[in-house]
Amino acid sequence: MRTLLVIIFGLTISVTCFSQDLNDSTEVKKRPKATYKVGSAKVTVWTNKRSDGTTWKNFKIEKVYKKNETWQTTNSFNETELLELKAAIDKAISEETVKNK
What we know:
This protein is of the alpha+beta class. The chain contains two helices and four strands.
């Protein structure tokens, strides 16, 4: 009897976790407004909206590289990559700030 209860309990938890995974995967994921890339440096622009309808932008900076056939990111840059980052930031500022004013 105890074994049967353990099996039923385990199945209940499995079904609960599975249905939670289904709910998570059906949510619509927010996409960035724009991405600006120069070399390995990338600036991603996200637009956010408040309940009163006003919006603002957030800018995410990162370095993108491939290691062991897998794409990875970091926020660490060497001197050359800093110049690429500066160019990507300038591009993002130009497109997102100057054109919108």
